[in-house]
Amino acid sequence: MKIHNLLTIIFLTSLFYSCQPPVEPKDFKLITADGQKYYALGKSFELKIDNPKGHEIDSVAYFRNGERIPSGKITIENEKLGRKTFSAKIYVGDQSFNVNNSIGILSKFEPKRIKYKIINEYPHDINAYTQGFEFNGDTLYEGTGKRGISQLRKLDYKSGMVLHSINLEPQHFGEGITIMGDKIYQLTWQAKKGFVYNINDFSKVKDFDFIRSKEGWGLCNDGNVLYKSDGTEKIWRLDPETLEEKDFIQIYSNDGPISQVNELEYINGKIFANIYMKNGIAIINPETGAVEGVINGTDLHKKVKTKHPEEVLNGIAYNKVTNTIFVTGKNWDKVFEIELID
Fold first, then answer.
1. Is residue 15 over pLDDT 50?
2. C-alpha distances in angstroms, 232 versus 213, 236, 252?
3. Is residue 4 included in any domain, yes or no?
4. Neighbours of 101 (CB within 10 A)
5. Which of 110, 162, 256, 315 could form a disulfide with 130 if both were Cys (CB 3.0 to 4.6 A apart)?
C-alpha cells in the first residue's frame, strides 16, 4: 500500500511539472513601477520585472549601462541627459534571461526665454542656402548647400560681397562649417564625408569620413573639440586631428529630446543650435546636453525675403570683435546682427 502511494505521488508530481509551460525570454519585461518612460534629474524610480505568466523567479540582477547596480531602485543625479539603457538578468531554475529597457533622462529646468535686440541689418545673397556660418576675426565665412551649387565662401559681411569661394563637387550637398586655427572644416549631408581646407586660400588639406553618426548637419568648436550634429538629438564630439567621433551628448529639455539639431555655434561656453524647420535657437550645455535657453527668431523671418517661405532661420556666427551674434537663414536676403538682452 505504501509503495503504491509513493508511486502515485511520484507520477502526479512528474505530471504536474510536465504540464507547466516552458519558460521563454518573451515571458518577461523590464518596466518601471509607475509606468513612466522619462524622469528628470534628481528624481527616483524603481525597476521591476513584469511576469504575467507567474513564473517562479529565483533572483534578479540589475544593470545600468552594462554595470551591475545593487537594486532596481534608481536615483538620477548629475549626469548627461538622454536615453539610458537599464537591463536585468532573471534566474529561473537553471536558466537565465536578459531583458532591457531604455529610460529617458530629462533636464529638471524649463529653458529660459532669451530676448534680443537688432543692432544692424546687412545684405545677404538670397541664392545662398546657408548651412554653415562662422567668423574668423572680423571676417565672415559661409558654407552653402544643395547639390550642384554648394560652396565655401569668404564674405565682407557689411556689403554681402563674396571675396573668395570654391565649389564643392556636384554630388556633394554642403553642410556646416567651423574654423580652428588655420583650418576650415566642412561637412556634407549624406555622403558621410567632410573636408578640411587651408583658411588662406581654401586649398584642400584632406578629406575625412564620419562613421558613427547618421549624417552631416552642423559643426562648431570650443578651441579643443569639434561638435557635430547629425539630424538627430545627438551632438558628437570629434577629435580635431583625427576627426574621429569620440562620443556624444543627447539634447534634451524638461519635456523630451530635441531632434533635427542643425547649424551650430559655440558661444561663451554654450552651444547655440538652429533646429531644422524652426525659427528658433536652442542654447545647450555641452557637458550635459540640457537646453538651458531658447531664442525665438520668428520676427526676423518676417523681415526678410526668401525664395520659399519654409526656408527658416539657419546660420549663427559669433563675432568676438563686436561681441554680437550674426544670424541669417536659408536663402534669406538679410543678415541680422543681434545682441542678447538677457
1. no
2. 9, 11, 11
3. no
4. 16
5. 315
The confidence score (pLDDT) of residue 33 equals: 93
195-210 residue pLDDT tens? 999 999 999 999 999 9
In angstroms, the CA 121 to CA 157 distance is: 10
pLDDT in tens, 111-159: 999 999 999 999 999 999 999 999 999 999 999 999 999 999 999 999 9
Residue range(s) defining the domain that contains residue 321: 112-340
| Domain end residue (candidates: 72, 106, 140) | 106
For residues 101 and 119, state if they share a domain: no
The burial class, CB within 10 Å (0-12 / 13-18 / 19+), for 28 is buried
Residue 135 lies in a domain: yes
Return mean pLDDT, the chain. Answer: 92
Q: E strand or H helix at 100, and its extent?
A: strand 95-106
pLDDT of residue 16: 46
Q: Residue 38, SS3?
A: strand
Do 124 and 247 lie in one domain? The reply is yes
Cα 266 to Cα 192, 195, 272, 282, 286, distances in angstroms: 23, 20, 6, 12, 9
Measured CA distances, 49 to 23, 53, 62 (Å):
14, 12, 10
Do residue 138 and residue 97 come from a single domain? no
Q: CATH number for the domain including 28?
A: 2.60.40.10
Q: Does residue 16 lie within any of the structural domains?
A: no
What pLDDT, on the 0 to 100 scale, is given for residue 12?
Answer: 47
The number of distinct structural domains making up the chain is 2
Q: Are residues 191 and 138 in the same domain?
A: yes
pLDDT tier, 342 (very low <50, low <70, confident <90, very high otherwise): confident
Nearest to 287 by CA among 261, 249, 260: 249
